[in-house]
Amino acid sequence: LKTLIPDEWIEIDCHYRQHMSLKRDLFNERKNDVLMYKSMTEKGSKEVLDMLIDYLPQRFPNMFRKTKTGIDNLITGESFNLTEKLSIHPLEIGSRLVQEDLVLMQYEPIDEMYHANVC
Fold first, then answer.
1. Average of per-residue pLDDT across 2-20
2. What is the pLDDT averaged over residues 45-50?
3. 3-state helix vs strand vs coil in the chain, percent to 5
4. Were both Cys, which of 12, 73, 85, 117 would link to 104 (CB 3.0–4.6 Å)?
């Protein structure tokens, strides 16, 4: 393991538009195959999304805009309103912003297991 360099946390390359189009199609056509989560891990997923919303507009200001209600993806044209009750899981929103697959592992002491959110 090595220390995370904040400016290298999320990388975006020249294939961004194509990758995001493919992700959108997969979410529309095969969501149950590409998004898996446990309801008990939603808080952690929201934390990851909040981190992305703070990070992306600062690191990539020509691609993302933080708004009073959420975030705009200036490349795909998608806007996400986060002030209302989310109809989309936070991990899906995060995945619709970045090329990488997102995996969040969360330990639950009740059943002494790690639960994964995968998108």
1. 87
2. 91
3. 40, 20, 40
4. 117
Alpha helices in 1-119 (DSSP H): 16-34, 42-59, 90-95
- Helix (DSSP H) and strand (DSSP E) numbers for the chain: 3, 5
> Which tokens sit at 98?
């970045």
Q: Rounded CA gap, 49 and 40, in Å?
A: 16
Region 50-74: mean pLDDT is 96
The region, left, alpha or beta by phi > 0 then psi within -120 to 50, assigned to residue 44 is: alpha
- C-beta of residue 70 within 8 angstroms of C-beta of residue 79: yes
- What confidence tens digit (pLDDT) does each residue in 95-107 have? 999 999 888 777 7
Amino acid letter for position 2: K
Q: What angle do CA 19, 24, 26 make, to 5 degrees?
A: 95
d(CA 105, CA 114): 6
**Lookup: tokens for 97:** 């912003």
pLDDT band at 58 (very low <50, low <70, confident <90, very high): very high
